[in-house]
Specification:
This protein is α+β, with helices and mostly antiparallel strands and 331 residues long. The protein is 21% helix and 32% strand. Helix 3 packs across helix 6 and helix 4 packs antiparallel against helix 7. The longest helix is centred in the middle third of the chain and has 17 residues.
Amino acid sequence: MRTASALLVSAAFLAGPVAAATAETVTADDGRGNTMRFSLEAPGASAAEPARILRDSVHGAEVATVLVHLVPAAQVGVLCGSATARACYRGRYDGTGEITVPAVAAPELDRVLLHEYGHHVDNNARNTGTEPDGTPGWWRERGVATLLADGRVARDYALGWDRSVGELFAEDYVQLNVRAAFAFDWIAPPSQAVLDAMRQDITGSAQGPAPRQVGGAGPDTPPATAGTASRVRVGRTGVLRPRGAAALRFRLLGPGRRVAVSAVVGGRGRGLRVALSCAGHAVASARTRTGRARLVRTGLGPAACTARVRNTGRAAVTYRMRVELTTPGAG
């Protein structure tokens, strides 16, 4: 892939990450003779978890040509050029690249790092000659040529983030490595034939271990069986610049879901706006100057949804956002 792609945002990341003055670059072996590199730019950051994730991933020698920046979560939006970015990748024509991810714990780190590493695999794969284009076997088994011809996907973000060829490949790459809910609702998750083709393209063999379970998947947790109670909570904290925003994306895997979104901001500014959208449509929003907002909607799903909190004040504020999902039968 020759241009940058940001996870869960539509804007491309056109400038390289700005390294912190105290950054420390460390290396680790992938167990196959390749050296992995990590730039530790967040207080207390360690290369142990990202090294484990990449070491366990389906990869080739391209793992030695990427630099992974571990940065404070609150700085990802600035470094990636979008207030809603969770991580991003910058690839170069020579196959080298840089990944910027927040210094967070698993399983969030697994998802964001594997997605961005999928872009790096794309950047190093020779396929159609027009990037992004994934790997040859993936392109064939996924029927990407037909998807493009039918106008269902695009090579850029003209049709939206989830309709980008590069993002589809990156999300399929996540599925190749971990068992987690698929990010898109307009197309089925990759079949075993697609996954085998990807592994063959990357490693030279279609055989290998099954995707590992990452656990603690938050809103991606499969719905409970009928008649049983199930409540899932997921949250995010950080700093919002004036007029800045943060987003939490999740999937409702069945009908009749109850979604509650709450947010609290602290600091000199107290204005905030909370909004919820599902399947590309606005569901509800709430605006307040008290520093606290909450909205609840029922009867939702299945759908891909996004909860957003926006700082409507003129000063930077700390924020805490929480999304609570309840399936039918839960009290």
